[in-house]
Amino acid sequence: MDRAIRRMWMSAACVFVLLMGTLSYIQFFDSKTLMNNQWNSRALYDNYGSARGSIVVDGTEIASSVKSDDEYNYQRVYNHPLKYAALTGYFSTIYGATGLEAALDKELAGTSDSQFYDRVAQLFSGSSAQGASVELTINSKLQDIAYNALQGRKGAVVALNPKTGEILAMASSPSYDPNLLSSHTSSSVLANYQALTSDEDSPLFNRAIAGNTYSPGSTFKIIDAVAALESGKYNASSVIANPAQLPLPGTNISLPNYTGGQCSTRTQVTIEWALAQSCNTPFAQIAMDLGQERIAKTAENFGYGQDLKIPLTVSKSSFPSNLTQSQLAQSAIGQYDVKTTPLQVAMTSAAIANGGVQMKPNLIRSVKTSNLSTLQEFSPEKLRTSTSPEIANQVKQWMVNAVDNGIARNAGVSGVKVAGKTGTAETTAGLNNSWFTGFAPADDPQIAIAVVYEDIDVATGAQLATSTSKQLFEAVLNK
User: How far, in Å, are 181, 371, 412, 459 from residue 469 at the CA level?
Assistant: First the structure.
């Protein structure tokens, strides 16, 4: 009798251990598989209806989760949506997530590996799951200036700290309202998404880092200048022919010189003068002399062709390969198949500003849990050495001259040495993409920027790009 009872108790104990083991495995080790199962409706409601963490700029929430009176319990809400849409992206029950909502989804949802112990504590306390809050490096004042300057036009603005890589402003226009896609009313979300995706101006693209990359125009001459100095074949005293028309080898066409500045007044020029006046033919000759490999390598050293996450994924900038001499000449002035993002152009100026060292751009200042413990905190990170301090300093002086005495003078700030370079890239008949990139103060850089306006006439574009840049410089320098 006693033996039968012992057997029964042992069997019961084994069943209990088995049940507890199975429960533990499901709760802790197999939870990810269950959460990701497409048939798990509870996971769907938890993901889209939980207290997702906030995205914060200068102490103000630009994205947050608020209580809703439907089956999801919470709805994502965006403040100042047009200004920050390119950063936040959207969080939709139908279309998923984009932007930082996607890039930091696990942290915002509270499901990252680093938040495991927080989830365990919430499980045993019975409290509802809460995601971490994300504070951005964005300066709200600079973001206001950048976005307001773009309103009504297509284009983008990027500003960053060249010493640390912190992104201070990132604006894209036209923009959109993420609230239109975060609604829990499916019919309206479907209609809104259809309207946005059918808009020929592509408001869902973040033009600062993705979408259709741009021809950089004459901003690429900064890279030409670096390549020339690095080759040892050119220096600050070198003189280059400056013809009004440069016959392109193997073709029956010629590359025209820039006609908007003083290029027509000299037949021979230094690199400094050619950069200040943005003359085309000297830089085309330099590129053909140095060869495709050297120009491409210098572009690569500044980030062309390289993967980058900030943590948003940045489209690769590209310098074409297998070029003829005529194609290389056109590429040297940022045309032909050279493609870039405004962030890459800003990074090029930032590397010159920072003595040839390019810091890794980053949007995230910190990530903190609901109990304010820190999961991530910004720390400056060197990305690469783009060129030597000596060459960076020489090119910096040339860029200062472009603002002091060249066609970039409208970006100047009284009492401050500003370094800069304009650019114009032909798009359609009579229209161009107009650029400005630069940094200030030149002797102690606090901000590096890139501004581009799409499909605009030369005079208007140049005025807009330099005016926007000047406003950003003045805001940082309290002028």
Answer: 33, 40, 9, 16
CA pair distance 171, 173, nearest whole angstrom: 7
Mean pLDDT of 403-419: 95
Provide the CA 191 distance to its chain's centre, in angstroms: 29
The closest alpha carbon to 470, from 393, 389, 414, belongs to: 414
Question: Positive or negative CA dihedral for 407, 408, 410, 416?
Answer: negative
Q: How far apart are CA 392 and CA 86, in angstroms?
A: 32
Sequence-separated (6 or more) residues with CB below 8 Å from residue 303: 317, 344, 347, 348, 358, 383, 384, 386
Task: Write the single-letter amino acid at 428.
Answer: T
Task: Give the model confidence (pLDDT) of 422-468 as tens digits.
Answer: 999 888 767 899 999 999 999 999 999 999 999 988 777 788 899 99
Q: Other C-beta atoms within 10 Å of 386: how many?
A: 25
Tell me the C-alpha distance between 2 and 396, whole Å: 93
Confidence of residue 19 (pLDDT cuts 50, 70, 90): low
H/E run at residue 125 = helix 116-125
- Judge contact between 108 and 134, C-beta under 8 A: yes
Catalytic residue (choose from 112, 218, 331, 469): 218
Distance (Å, whole) CA 271 – CA 277: 10
DSSP β-bridge partners for residue 134: 55, 367
Question: Bigger pLDDT: 110 or 14?
Answer: 110
Beta strands 357-359; 313-314: pairing state: unpaired
When the pLDDT of each residue in the chain is averaged and rounded to a whole number, the result is 89
Establish whether 218 is a catalytic residue: yes
Average confidence (pLDDT) over 297-321: 97
Quick check: 7 pLDDT over 90? no
